[in-house]
Amino acid sequence: MTIRGNINWHGRTILIVEDEEVCFSYLDVLLKPTQATIFHAIEGQQAVNMCVSHPEIDVVLMDIRLPGMDGLEATRKITSQRNDLPVIAQTAYASEDDQRAAFSSGCWEFIAKPIRANEMIALIKKYLEKPSSKNQD
Question: Which of 90, 114, 120, 131 is 20 to 30 A removed from 16 (C-alpha atoms)?
Fold first, then answer.
């Protein structure tokens, strides 16, 4: 809790794209103390639509395996319209091929599940609290 106690992201908006309710709930509880506005999409096309219609979204936490349009295709569509929007891939499938596919689709970062709270907060903070350019690793 300490790391979140010092964070104030009031006025910032995070889109969590996650079809598993337990995973969404974990991230929602993790991020609530930051005062960020949280949006939730459960599949890729919904995420694309939200990113287009809500320019206030500051960062996207994108599950890779989703029903319908997967997270990689959704990321390609989102970044084709909003290439300045950081997308952080999150997945239980964390092979090197999965990481390469995520970065190739336009994700800025990659985090493996189970997600560690401090690691996720640090990644989001990197994009919400200071100007940053896309990870070029």
Answer: 131
Tell me the Ramachandran region of residue 85: left when phi exceeds 0, alpha when psi lies from -120 to 50, beta otherwise: beta
Backbone phi, then psi, for 55, in 5-degree steps?
-65, -15
- Write out pLDDT tens, residues 69-103: 999 999 999 999 999 999 999 988 778 998 999 99
pTM, entire model = 0.90
Q: What single DSSP character describes residue 123?
A: H
Q: How far apart are CA 51 and CA 49, in angstroms?
A: 6
Could you state, in order of their start, the residue ranges of all structural domains in the chain?
Answer: 2-128
Q: Inter-axis angle of helices 21-31 and 117-128, to 10 degrees?
A: 60
